[in-house]
Amino acid sequence: MSPDLTAILDEIVAHMAAAEDRGTVASYIPELAKVDPAQFGIAIATADGRLLTGGDSDTGFSIQSVSKVFALTLALGKVGDQLWDRVGREPSGNAFNSIVQLEQEQGIPRNPFINAGAIVVADVNLGGHQPRVAIGEMLRFVRYLTGDDSVAINEDVAASETATGYRNMALANYMRAFANVRHPVDLVLGTYFHQCAIEMSCRQLALAGRYLMLDGRHPDGGRVVSPSRARRINALMLTCGHYDASGDFAFRVGIPGKSGVGGGILAIVPGRASIAVWSPGLNDSGNSCLGTQALELLARRTGWSVFSPPEEGD
Amino acid sequence: MSPDLTAILDEIVAHMAAAEDRGTVASYIPELAKVDPAQFGIAIATADGRLLTGGDSDTGFSIQSVSKVFALTLALGKVGDQLWDRVGREPSGNAFNSIVQLEQEQGIPRNPFINAGAIVVADVNLGGHQPRVAIGEMLRFVRYLTGDDSVAINEDVAASETATGYRNMALANYMRAFANVRHPVDLVLGTYFHQCAIEMSCRQLALAGRYLMLDGRHPDGGRVVSPSRARRINALMLTCGHYDASGDFAFRVGIPGKSGVGGGILAIVPGRASIAVWSPGLNDSGNSCLGTQALELLARRTGWSVFSPPEEGD
Amino acid sequence: MSPDLTAILDEIVAHMAAAEDRGTVASYIPELAKVDPAQFGIAIATADGRLLTGGDSDTGFSIQSVSKVFALTLALGKVGDQLWDRVGREPSGNAFNSIVQLEQEQGIPRNPFINAGAIVVADVNLGGHQPRVAIGEMLRFVRYLTGDDSVAINEDVAASETATGYRNMALANYMRAFANVRHPVDLVLGTYFHQCAIEMSCRQLALAGRYLMLDGRHPDGGRVVSPSRARRINALMLTCGHYDASGDFAFRVGIPGKSGVGGGILAIVPGRASIAVWSPGLNDSGNSCLGTQALELLARRTGWSVFSPPEEGD
Amino acid sequence: MSPDLTAILDEIVAHMAAAEDRGTVASYIPELAKVDPAQFGIAIATADGRLLTGGDSDTGFSIQSVSKVFALTLALGKVGDQLWDRVGREPSGNAFNSIVQLEQEQGIPRNPFINAGAIVVADVNLGGHQPRVAIGEMLRFVRYLTGDDSVAINEDVAASETATGYRNMALANYMRAFANVRHPVDLVLGTYFHQCAIEMSCRQLALAGRYLMLDGRHPDGGRVVSPSRARRINALMLTCGHYDASGDFAFRVGIPGKSGVGGGILAIVPGRASIAVWSPGLNDSGNSCLGTQALELLARRTGWSVFSPPEEGD
After folding, report:
1. Which residue of A has its CA nearest to C101?
2. What is the CATH number of the domain that holds A163?
3. Which residues does UniProt assign to the signal peptide (chains A, B, C, D) (predicted)?
4. What is the pLDDT of residues A269-300, one digit of tens each?
5. What does the H/E/C string look like for C23-92?
6. Which member of D88, D235, D254 has the closest CB to residue C254?
7. Residues of D in contact with B166 (CB under 8 A)
């Protein structure tokens, strides 16, 4: 029997409203530091077509690194498995913006979900075009996945990152020295910063993630990626989706997820649910504090885990 | 409909018999270097109680690091989640015997499946006893899981490691300096080396792993660990079970697994199968070359993946 | 009795002319890669006012990192020992352009003679001005030290570095993220690249270094820096002047020196000599191959070493 | 004119008696932790044969890592420059007991003055003998240098280190894995720990260091090492003698020195003085707090610095 998701969502929203430790809002992007930390939203799109929401599920937030999932999907569509010549598939063991590993491994980032890897992905998506072309393509893709043309980029956030993103500039220049960034750094970062500045609500983000729950199919029947590729993106989310807390997230929550410093997390239960949570306060690892707790509670209540027998939770 | 496992096993055995690159047998443990690389075995214990085998599935081999799964299970039974004060749960991003991370993180190993972490686990399992007590307990546990009292320790292999295990002695002494190894180093390593020297066949290993496929239950109905703990061990196997190739294994195979330098791999499909493969030749990451390929082929043919919808493969 | 420097110089020039392994010309700055490797020059300015030269001692070359000595002298004049809040004084143990240490030590470079440290020094020398002001000041300072107004900047080399200096851009942006570069990165690097592109002959460089042999005094009697500061700059040259081969240079040659990838080395024997050698081929550590050998031979023949009793060599 | 050393010594002793921050006595060797921190001694042996002392200059202390200088001298006598195939000559950039660099550089320690390097030196000095043979040889050598047969080993300190020296056991085992320690680890460390437990007073230590001030000659006229080797040992002391504070010591004091965690420092002014200072409290870098200050003050008052013109200070 399926769990009563409505009751579970109510419990989660109540629990999070009462939370005392809400983490700390990211301060390194000035525009993000302004967000009110007393917010929490959740949305679940199920495989049978329902959409359940709770809390501030219609408030837009900066998806930031969650965008790396969609950007990776696009880049794999462009260059296929050749991408893996330029980006690894291993957890990094380091923080999201670490540059140490890049030096040791000759400019090849460990995986596409740390910043360095996502910059290589942006370089692929940029191709020989202008940033606005690549950004437009990304936006159309996310709108298609969501089925909602109102998804947009917050230009203030993009400008804020462009003005202060020194670490990302360092990463991009460093990889350019190894020829693993192939287009001018400012164009690549222009693409990257705009992609990170996409604004979505939990409702929209849960809808956007449905193809990863449906083995690569859009709910409209179209194929976004092959089943094999969908599984592999899920695998990467599980092993690498939460920076140096990925192992802990897999251990405690047990489902693939990708977090962003805007406080959003997209989590996928293959065959069952695409889940978006959001709360702007971050924990020490840079992942949403309440968002992580909400997913842990949801997994416990529903029995959803990629590591449990399929009978459980059905 | 279930896949025709018999046909798939036949295909895998034939495929592996024809393989040209069989990897390289581990040379750093002299006793292991003597093993004939032209061997391959596979065994699958299914959730519905069948046992399918192929190739050299009854030949015993040194399970080596696969034993870390059973040792972890025992240690969690002794000290529960307090274990995590002394061992992390994150992929290491380094080789199995790296000491770099230990210095940076003050003697706390990244996870229980790298050597340093497994030595801490052995320290817990040793308690205040003599190594033969802890080793006896471990052997009884593995025999119980397997339902086969013939499982034994290869004393030559244990002696070989004791005589040459300088890196492990370095790791243990290093953690002793941080008081994260609490018993005399030679006793802890005595326990550890004997645990690694347990000899099992694929048939026995697949049987031993059934509790992880059955959400913590022994097929005889007894509970080995709680469902939550079983899932978490599976999660650790997925994120950390193949050293610095764990991400790649999750990406390509998509199921939790733990490898050993003896050439064995135990892999778990929750709710469906406990799989053991063995071939002594290793790839560059120190994991069984043919064993990894066999699991990848098996996953492709069966559709088994923790990242695919549950309907697939059933 | 003083050694017969003329005879020694003749021997060195002959020896270097016959050398078979001349190293490899730096290729990462395109403009430098064009230089003919079959060149070698040497000049010695002595404390008693003589100037001895040999080989291609009047051919100009790009002084590159040798400029870091003059830039450090200027910066210490501007901000004094406050500089050491932003730059360390320890050998780095890493290559000249490593970024690893910067991450571990929060954007504080190990010493002013690795690239990261020299970029901080350039940031200090830039102050709130335009690069051309800081570059003009540097050029005037070097001309004053040399007593030769013909010293100039090679604009082609400066442009070449600006176009391809991705690693330096990475370093500068990375330190900007830690607020240890305080002015816009392109202005700081503009200053830095032009300083590196100063062109001097061995004759000019040996003259420029005289203040470091004379305990901080210009031969014209003026004080360039205090005696204490001159000694400290010499100490830094000894411990940090040859990147990760500094210890070996101190061991084999035994006098303070600073090398550049243009193939020049400035070496100081306190109270006795300011020496410039140049040969464009570099060894594996990025220091002039023949230049290092020439200094080793010179030190052996003259007995000059800061580690020998003062009686020796007089 | 020579400085008035007697007056300077008086000033230094008075200054150190009034010091408030005396550092912290090393606690990781239990036997050393018992030493009274309110002690300070100094002794200067001059090239013209005088011996000046001040403070607790006749109190014995554990010379610890200062012994690495004498051990290196012995090992070079045994195997000559072949030693450098097994030990580097570069500053490490890391703490004295770091193991990180060993992993990156395949078991070759950076220099003979960090613990790992000194363990390789002890392995050389051990040869195929029993530790008591090598220890006896070392003791005879130090007594010869000192001209004092009362120099002895403190067995309590040696036993204390043997019982708790886990990090050194880790280092030795780690290098044994790379075959850069060639004899049984317990024998090598037995040699090493006894060498470190040599007890000397400042008076004795200053006498022992005279050969390094005299370009390799014993004051009795005998040659201990060649001039070239004496200079090179001095060079290593300057670049590597104070762990990761070596650069700072060279910068501030400007003369070669080797410190030990017992609080002693041996410093050499080539051609002029062999200096021993001792105070048990250590600074953050593990070097004697007052000892370092005393040497800095001495250098300032005397003008002694290898980086100043020879006329100064004479």
Report:
1. A100
2. 3.40.710.10
3. none
4. 999 999 999 999 999 989 999 999 999 999 99
5. CEECCCCCCHHHCCCCCCEEEEEECCCCEEEEECCCCCEECHHHHHHHHHHHHHHHHHHHHHHCCCCCCC
6. D235
7. 173-174, 176-177, 185
